[in-house]
Design a protein that fits this description.
The chain is mostly helical. The chain has five helices and three strands, in the order αβαβααβα. Strands 1-2-3 form a three-stranded mixed sheet.
Amino acid sequence: MPAFSGLFAPYWRGDARGAIVGLTRYVNKGHFARAALEATAWQTREVLDAMEADSGVTLKELKVDGGMVYNDTLMQFQADSLQVPVIRPKVAETTALGSAYAAGLATGFWDSYEDLRQNWGKDKEWTPSIDKSEIEREYALWKKAVTRTFDWVE
């Protein structure tokens, strides 16, 4: 549970701290690596669940960016945890790309948003491969682990 300086959205718990839960004597370094990836996906799901609850808009797909999107295991687990397709663009550093697009629009390099849309391309897509009931069972365990991190700081 990565809560080294508290848990932020959607919990907003400054008293939470990082924890490793569910260990058995059979755990090895591969389990720790997998847990770190799964924690990333579960935290993303929690934020997206909160956004859906607030907006009433149901997520149909997730377009991702950043360095972690090159980890196929994470992207597959993200698709499984959300039960929607996850799509990686050809250019995965879209924050920098967005800045370049904004500058190009401001200076007239591009004429319209449509010009920018034509530059976007899909690199890879993952679709859910785990049954929803299994994911919900695992998600409940994740949420149980989250509560174990509360109240470490008085």
